[in-house]
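Quick question, first post here. What does this chain look like in 3D?
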Amino acid sequence: MNAREIGLKQAEAAYIAEISERTGQRIESGKHQPNRGKVAERANTQDPLGDVWDKELEPMLKKEPRLKPMTLFEYLQDTYPGKYPQVLRTLQRRVQTWKAIHGPSPEVMFELRHEPGLIGFSDFTQLKEIEITIAGTPFEHLLYHYRLGYSGWQYAHIIQGGESFIALAEGLQNALTACGGVPKQHRTDSLSAAYKNLGGNKALTRLYDELCDHYRMQPTRNNTGIAHENGAIESPHGHLKNRIKQAIYLRGSNDFGSIEEYRLLVDAAVAKLNQQCQQKFDQEREHLQPLPKYRVPDYEILTACVSNRSTVEVRCVLYTVPSRLIGRQLELHLYHDRIVGYLGNHQVVELPRIRVTDSDKRRGRCINYRHVIEGLRRKPRAFIYCTWQQELLPNPAFRERWLELTAQFDLDTAAVLMVEALYIAATQDQEAAVADYLEQALTAQTLNLKQLQQHFRQDCPESLPQLTVTQHDLASYDQLIESQPLQDSPDRTTAPSDSPESSSASDSPPPAAPTYSHARPLGITGTPSYTGAMVLCQIFVGIMRTRDTTPQRSPVATGTHRGSTSQRKKFFQL
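> Answer (accepted):
Ran it through. Tokens below.
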């Protein structure tokens, strides 16, 4: 007020007095209330729980501290009907205060310090509150999530099926390859794919133990049922799934054309999270162990023999394979999302792995018409009563065409047309074009087998190379059918000069051997010669001459002309 008396303005006087201008105006006008804002003293009110708190409720809490306020309120309503109608909030505050002063101490959470390159975390999680569809079909899957403890670098992998060692091995090895190194420890919760939770001499499964030993990691896990011990991966689950859901909301649709398209969205969400920790990840990468040269097999090996129906059965599911493999023993590698078949060292087939999710069914079928279409084309009427008829039709469009075919044609004709259409779709890879043509032709009622084949006929190239063919002279074959007279051969064997037969034979020329029309040169390569023909004829004639008048030599006469060496004497002639 002294400042105001000397002529200063209200704002200047309030500044000097260290009060607000508004307070100065109230003081000057006489409306100032010095005790404004002071809590008014209330008259003592009676405690609504004074009669029962000390005698009944507190002893109950001391005996069992886990009792909740609602339980105590219901106790009062049952014991004293109508006496304590509006004491629930009072009872909740009273119990909360009592537990803070006299109740048990809650569990303390300690902040942990992670060293670079020391530990990596793995876990599986499920994307809830949103349904992912692939081409309109619900896609049941899990997300494998890996995170480095120090830097927070993350990796996510789509897993089809449940938590299995195959899924763990593939996801973990992909994550280690993506980050370019291996931590010293690997921590999970009590995964049944990694640990024997029902007891046993060794807690680790053999496959998981070999996997960690191959990558020089020490396997660790949190205590069973205490998820917060794995909090370094449990909490980031929510951030990752929130990123994925927001990306889907921004995309405007949860339906994807393929699994690969969905995988790209997940990878983009993970990449944005990793941008926030890139600097720390560069520091941690220097402390990671180097990757081994080879990966551990992340598949299960089975063997199966292909039946005469061109099928194999794997885990209660029937799969078709190419019909050329019938009767062969295949080695099957089971991944979480596919089955790869090998014949020896050659990969011969790759099949999508399916699982029976319907509780009412124990078995399933995975039928590919491309595998058996060649055999079905030879027996098209087998399509009518085939057990796999609906599975042989690749999509709903072909199933509708089949119903239309059976309505316009008899069963035999309809089966021939549908099998031919499937054959064209398989061999020319025109599944959609064949379905469209069938729809148009059936609508116009002009469909027949010939037009179907001509419409999808694969034309030959317009220009073919000109080939020049020279016809040889057919007269060269005459020498094979003509017979020639035998000539005297200089190699003909003569009898010894001192024999009586040789003297008579030398006086007159030998008679010519007769020629037989059925004599042919045999086994002669190249151009046959007349000499060869004469030799064969001479041998044949000698065999056929059964009444020869030439005198036979006696054993004694034959022996006298062996040579100049004297004959050996018998032992009785000595």
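The longest strand covers residues 119-125.
The two ends are 184 Å apart (CA to CA).
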